[in-house]
Amino acid sequence: MLVLDDVRVVYPDFEVRYDLAVPEGALCALIGPSGGGKTTLLHTIAGFAPVVSGTITFAGRDLTKLAPAERPLSILFQDHNLFPHLTAAQNVGLGIDPRLRLDAAARERVEVALRRVELGGLGGRRPAELSGGQRQRVAIARALVRDRPLMLLDEPFTGLDPGLRADMIALVDTLRRERRLTVLMAIHSPEDAADVADLFAFVADGRVDAVGPPAEMLAPGRSPKLDRYFRRS
Amino acid sequence: MNRLPGLLSLALLVGIVALGFYGLLSAGGSGAAIDWGYVWRLVRSALVQAGLSTAISLVLGAALALALARRSRFRGRALLLAGFNAATVLPAIVTVFAIVALFGRSGWIGDATRAVGLDYGSWVYGLDGVLLAHILLNAPLAARVFLAGLGAVSAEEWRLAAQLGMPPGAVFRFIDWPVIRREAAGVAALMFLACFSSFAIVLALGGGPGVSTLEVAIYEAVRFEADFSRAAVLALVQVGACAAILLPALVLFGRRSPEAPPGGIAAPRPDTGSRRLRAFDRGVLLLMAFLVLVPMATIAIGGAASLGSLVDTTVLEAVLTSLAIGLPAGLLSVLLALGLATLARDLRLLRRSLADLTGAAATLVVVVSPIALSAGLFVVLRQRVNPFAIGIPLVVLVNALMALPFTYRQVEPPLLLAAERFGRLGDSLGLRGVARLRLVEWPLLRAPLLVALAMAIALSLGDLGVASFFGRGELVTLPVLLYERLGSYRVAEAGSVALLLTLLVGGLFLLAQRVSGGFVARPR
């Protein structure tokens, strides 16, 4: 279980407060208006946000005070997931050793991860030589070699074509089943994840306003804010 | 649209530069009598000096930028930053004063060390002093450029580094170093060019043939030996060398990748915890504060101590002379830039290459060094009029042209923006003539024009070379007065002039910075 228990985050100009519980192995899609706090929620779990009070636990372990690198998770941002001057393989390799000291076995692991995201043979390319979808696959491959049980995705597929977006989400779904990952994924269009998500969490005004299975969340009457978000009222 | 102002600007620019070259070529034509060994020694001396100045400034600038980036909050940081920024806009001759007043034989430190029985002589005259002055001006500039580059690193990269658990060494290797490498090429070329063409600092601190630049040699050939053919040959070599330095740099500029805008909330750097790194950064900050801020404090303290010496007709006349040169030079430079930029914009609709050529004409003036151009004009005019008799107009003209690359860079982008973004909208609404100027161009141009004007005036106010070239001791501007007082070891009286000049120039830069809302680098 990933649990955020009354976690308060305070920035100079705004403040959020989260309560959320996601079972292990579940895929939870974060939906809601832009600026509503989806990204901040992911940053809070990843250790990038100034938490003032409350606790974050995962599988019974308290993460609240851990440094970002010590937390049992990987995070994918919308952009800039790769260092532009390093090759795809080097970017993946950073997930094994942040000084990039890789032995033959480590390099083999990188290659396997790249093949797993269907980028076999493209390890020598730099990000500029890859398409938007390929770049995000490299970031996923890095998450694979890091081998952490929790995966956070901050709208990493928003800029892609609808078909490609569906493919990427399907890939995430397959990987989480293979590896029993718990996934939190902020998405722009709720319908993208309606088929694969176990849960939708609706985040608005810096709060988790409602949580439930997609079918329930997509039906009217769950919460006034959610209805307004879907223009149902 | 009316192209007359643009064509006139272009004609003036090309005409003056061509006249200068004509003068140089005609006087240097009999270059047979030139001692090429001497020329080569000069070039080599300037290259070595500029290379050392640039290399040290780059290293110290990078260390300073990293220290400031890693230590984002400590007491006095804002003051430190303001001091470093101010150092980048000091007129060269003021820097000379600061170094002489501080490190010179009868400077503060010299006095203090002699009091305890140490006499290290006057090492400020020679390569050491020249390097110190160049580093004082250039290291903070490099730091500012690097710091801006580091500031443009996306928050995601820092979060990624934190998430991957990168140690400080890896952060440097994978994030800082690529930024520094990318920015270094451009800023190094500019600094190298500035140090290679350095005039005031080398004239005052160089001392002898050991450390010299072609600029100083040209000046000496004309002023002291009236050897015009040697001056012409040196000037041609100077222009050729500058072109050779700058052209590869322009290619590098062209390849520069656009910077990612900093997104959202700034993420903290993950490498601020290491104790050894913290000690290192503290050392760097202390060293740079000593090298840069203490000399600047010397200007303030030394100047304030002798404020009384400002009440003097010589000083008043120097202020008036400086303004009589600086104001028209700034205005002329901005008008030329405006003319050229409108011409380039109109030509862009006809033929792109013509527009690019116009822009290149405005920016490539930087290759023609002020002393070389002055020498060329001097040679041509000498046969017809007395160049000294029309000293002020000549100084105004040359200073205006020297500021042109900068004023053009300020004015051209907003004009183009006005045309590209609002051109069709304006056409469709029937906006024309003055109404269009007032409603479309002026709001976009107002701030850049003011910035350009302030900078061009500041640049002309700080000029020592051109004013003393055509002045023959009679055109006493503030920098000339400062140089004279330094030359006659009246350091206390020089202090007040240095402070006055610093306040004038600094005030203009501050104004420009306020108006533009950002940091304004000293144009070179």
Query: Greatest interface and its residue counts?
Result: A-B, 26 and 22 residues
User: Structural class, from secondary structure content of chain B?
Assistant: mainly alpha
Rg of Cα set of chain B: 24 Å
Indicate the mean pLDDT of chain A. Answer: 93
Name the strands of the widest sheet of chain A in spatial order.
6-7-8-3-9-10
What's the helical proportion of residues of chain A? 25-40%
Query: Element order, helices and strands of chain A?
Result: EEEHEEEHHHEHEEEHH
- The low-confidence parts of chain A are none
Whole-Å distance between the termini of chain A?
34 Å
* Percent range of helical residues of chain B: over 70%
Beta content of chain B comes to under 5%
Number of strands of chain B: 0
What characteristic shape of chain A results from the CA principal axes? globular
Number of helical segments of chain A?
Answer: 7
Structural class designation of chain A: alpha/beta
Please write the string of helix (H) and strand (E) elements of chain B.
HHHHHHHHHHHHHHHHHHHH
Beta strands of chain A, count: 10
Description:
The complex is a heterodimer of chains A (233) and B (524). The two termini of chain A are 34 Å apart. Chain A is built from seven helices and ten strands. Chain A has helices at 38-46, 88-93, 104-116, 132-146, 162-179, 214-218, 224-229; strands at 2-10, 15-22, 27-31, 51-58, 61-62, 73-76, 150-154, 182-186, 199-204, 207-212. Helices cover 31% and strands 25% of the residues of chain A. Helix content of chain B is 77%, strand content 0%. Chain B is built from 20 helices and no strands. The A-B interface holds A 11, 39, 43, 46-48, 67-70, 74-75, 77, 79-81, 83-86, 94-95, 98-100, 146 and B 154, 156-157, 159-167, 169-170, 174-175, 178, 260, 264-265, 267, 270.
Using brief descriptors, characterize the structure shown:
heterodimer, A: 233 residues, alpha/beta, six-stranded mixed β-sheet, 7 helices, 31% helix, 25% strand, globular, B: 524 residues, mainly alpha
